[in-house]
Design brief:
The protein contains six helices and no strands. It has 135 residues and is mostly helical.
């Protein structure tokens, strides 16, 4: 009897996975060439390295680190790399070889700019100096 309950529990867990795997893809992305796949893999490795460094950096606020971690957890690195490549291709002024640019684009794709610390940093400090008139 115990074997039956274990079997039914496993079957209940596996059945939805099997049904999901059997579903046809709803939207198929255009086929990527080998050169594009290689570029995506290299870009993905750079992004992972940059994100890893950001997660270990003491100067980056915790809420931004949480956005990076959540993005890596919820998305395939391949998808982040492809999306970053699409943004870089659409904006030829951006240098995809520059680590700062690559980090900013990939972090924006991951929604790091929605972190409260980014919003607070974007606001200029109020100017408390009295204005003088020039005559």
């Amino acid at each position: 009897m115990r074997k039956l309950s274990i079997f039914t529990a496993i079957a209940a867990l596996v059945a939805p996975l099997a049904l999901h795997a059997a579903e046809p893809a709803k939207t198929e992305a255009p086929a990527r060439t080998d050169a594009q796949k290689k570029a995506d893999m290299q870009r993905g490795a750079k992004i992972l390295s940059l994100f890893s460094g950001a997660l270990q950096n003491k100067d980056i606020p915790e809420d931004q680190k949480n956005y990076i971690y959540a993005c890596l957890y919820q998305n395939k690195l391949e998808n982040i790399s492809v999306a970053t490549g699409n943004v870089l291709a659409a904006n030829p002024k951006l240098d995809g070889n520059d680590p700062k640019v690559l980090y900013k684009v990939s972090a924006t794709i991951c929604g790091v700019n929605k972190a409260p610390s980014v919003a607070n940093a974007a606001k200029p400090a109020p100017d408390n100096k009295p204005k003088t008139s020039s005559r």
